Amino acid sequence: MLRFLKMKAFDPRFPTQKTGVLRGRLLAAFTLVELLVVIAIIALLIGLLLPAVQGAREAARRMGCQNNLRQLGLALHIYESAFRRYPPSRGWNGDVASPALVWSAQSRLLPFVEDLAVGADVTKNLNNDYDTAKLTNSQTLISSLRIEVLVCPSETNAKPLIDEEERHYPLNYGINMGTWFVFDPVTKGGGNGAFQVNGRLKSSSFSDGLSKTLALSEVKAYTPYRRDVGKPFFAPPLSPAAINGLGGDEKPEGGHTEWVDGKTNQTGFTALFPPNTFVPITINGEQRDGDWTNQREGKSTTAPTLAAVTSRSYHPSSVNFVLMDGSVHAASDSIDAVLWQALSTRAGGETVAENY
């Protein structure tokens, strides 16, 4: 009997409670191979899911960008209905030292979009210096405000520019200043785009048709550029590589940083090169993608404003734009250069195919 009990106590067929619990735990655990397989499957699923999530986010940002342009296109129509003309790119009274009338076309459109209060304050200050103009509260600089309708959701540098006493905020939608020539301070003549210095263009000025002329297109904030060479009028360079040889003062990240400023390098673009063209310029000994302006508007009484200010965006392989008729489209990076320039002229007489 005692022998039987001893055999039963140590017989594997009659495990103790402690041994049974231990065995149950061992049977329920993963082996190392099984754990590695599970981790591999999870990594694979994440790898498949991440591009889809990123694609969905970019699609949402693109839609938000297009909606901003749609609002600006509508504001442009309302402005024209109210004043029987389109806004100027900026004003100029012939005095290089005067800051009067220099507000951008975008700032003049604000009373006709959702920023009604800011637009009203801009209207009150159109004859004043935008660097010091303040809201009705007499405390907040208008130039320092972030205007949501002017900022693309994909912009990676949506941050204020702080320069001593000045406070500015960038923008992502530049007005169409034509192909190359922007302004002649001697004759007061403007370029072939949709906006001009002291411009009073009307619908009848667009013989190419409002549906075939660019109004605004995307630009990148904090674009490096070179400026104020002061050359007399000359023909546009044939390639982006020739731009750097034109010289000029270096501005490492000064372009499109001031939504209130009506100069082309701040709130405009030209169609010399197609969207997202890499234009190599040397800044602090480093080659960067940038812009070039012969002479900023209002800074000389003799040197013309000639500009290679390229439309750019963070959207993959395309930029969004709005035409003068208010319709919003996207142009691929591979758009024909001649077509892009034809879209920028208001009265060039070109044949424009709707193949962006």
Stretches with pLDDT under 50, minimum 5 residues: 1-10, 17-26
Outline: globular
User: What share of the residues lie within helices?
Assistant: 25-40%
Distance from first to last alpha carbon: 98 Å
Strand proportion, as a percent range, falls in 15-25%
Q: Number of helical runs?
A: 7
Oligomer: single chain
Mean of residue pLDDT?
A: 89
Global structural class: alpha+beta
Strand order in the largest sheet = 5-4-13-12-7-8
SSE topology string: HHHHHEEEEEEEEHEEEEEEEH
Largest sheet geometry: 6 strands, mixed
Number of strands: 15
**Overall radius of gyration:** 30 Å
Describe the 3D structure:
The protein is α+β, with helices and mostly antiparallel strands and 356 residues long. Helix content is 28%, strand content 17%. It is built from seven helices and 15 strands. Strands 5-4-13-12-7-8 form a six-stranded mixed β-sheet. Strands 9-3-6-14-15 form a five-stranded mixed β-sheet. The chain starts with a helix and ends in a 12-residue tail after the last helix.
Helices and strands in order:
Layout: H1 2-10, H2 17-28, H3 32-83, H4 105-109, H5 116-124, E1 161-163, E2 166-168, E3 173-176, E4 181-184, E5 189-190, E6 214-218, E7 223-227, E8 249-255, H6 264-267, E9 268-269, E10 280-283, E11 286-289, E12 291-293, E13 305-308, E14 318-323, E15 328-332, H7 337-344
Parallel strand pairs: 3-9, 7-12
Antiparallel strand pairs: 1-2, 3-6, 4-5, 4-13, 6-14, 7-8, 10-11, 12-13, 14-15
